[in-house]
Amino acid sequence: MIPVIAIFDIGKTNKKFFLFNEDYKIVEEVSVNFAEIEDEDGFACEDIRALRRWVLDTLNKYIDSNTYDIRAINFSSYGASFVHLDERDVPVTPLYNYLKPYPAKTEEQFYATYGTKEDVAIATASPALGNLNSGLQLYSLKYDKTKLFDKTLTSLHFPQYLSYLISGEKYSDITSIGCHTALWDYRKHGYHDWVVKEGIDKKLAPVFSSAKAIDIIYNGKALKCGIGLHDSSAAFIPYIQNVNEPFLLISTGTWCISMNAFNDTPLTKQELEKDCLCYMTYEGNTVKSSRLFAGYAHEQIIKKLSEYFVEVPNYFEKIAYDKSLLKDEPALNDLNDFDVANYVSYEAAYINFIRQVIIAQKRSTDLVYNDKVKKIFVDGGFAKNETYMQLLAEAYPRTEVFAASVSQATAMGAAMALHKDWNHLSLPDNVISTRKY
């Protein structure tokens, strides 16, 4: 039988299950998605019951396999979400959607009591983001849905709830606590004062290391079980484990997030106003980060280019980098203000739009960049974009710039976090595919 680690990687759309062998090759992969349901206010949310059934059914199927010897299990999922359990460990609320608007009166009350948005944001390294500050979800539950709050014995971050389903153990994890929750005071390395004054800390499970496993028996089989990781922190782990000198990672998708684990300067008011925040590594170290909504702007410009020039799906993928098409134009304050009508061709418009993306990207990345950084890695959609990568390399001439790819980085990171608990081989040094620009 093949020794493996099982990973559940739960995104908002796709729910995935993987088995990794000892060389961190994927030997099994399952992917599903579920229709959203509505919470009591009619807002779309995760179907936690359907997800719970799928997690248990999937693990039960593979735990009895004659092909694989599952030795460990871990979990990653999106953050900013809590599951509130009663004394019988039954969820007392839906899994509220972090995109749901935060109650204005409750927000006003919170900041009137505990300081300005700026004060709380600087202390917790969390820009004021409403329900994306998941700690404020607990505050809202206390004052807006008091009966449900009183019924809640333990509130688990979503990754830790997934772990609890298998282990029966309730823990909190620093990667979930430390990521834009408004719970963690980065200055004193503990919960913010408001968390204690409101009694929220009594609803939270004890903190356990994300770099360790707990011993459990599941269906008669001994397993090493992780307590789960916030997905952004999990995806950072393959780079931490494989890169031997200070680096910066630009993770690109809808958001382009610049992550620097080698910058320990406190966030300033100006940085917070420009959408900086901090993540936490699974070892408890700070990752100073900045965000740019460039992937979304890219999606919108592709639609405009197709409408204006040529109706060919993803035509931009065929465009080679051509420096002669670049215009020396002033930087846009908003990428959505880019006007395709100012250009004679799809190619010219697209390349000049990417130039504007790079201007904005450098502005964003420079907020967390420092002289320690020797390499910049780009993963996600823009890593496959020749024009983006060439212009980024030109923007950072003294730093090595690489397009990088890690297959299923979030799941891979969750597996690697438990390496010493289940795998007797050395960590592989080839999980990152790179191309230098």
UniProtKB/TrEMBL annotation:
Pfam families documented for this protein: FGGY_C_2, FGGY_N
Tell me the InterPro entries matching this sequence. Answer: ATPase_NBD (IPR043129), FGGY_C_2 (IPR049382), FGGY_N (IPR018484)
Q: Which family does it belong to?
A: Belongs to the FGGY kinase family.
Q: Entry's SUPFAM superfamilies?
A: Actin-like ATPase domain
Which UniProt keywords are given for this protein, alphabetically ordered? Kinase, Transferase
List, for all copies, the residue spans of the domain called Carbohydrate kinase FGGY C-terminal: 245-306, 371-420
Species of the source: Niabella yanshanensis
Show the GO MF annotations.
kinase activity
Q: What is this protein called?
A: FGGY family carbohydrate kinase
Q: Residue limits of the Carbohydrate kinase FGGY N-terminal domain?
A: 5-227
Q: Which domain of life is it from?
A: Bacteria
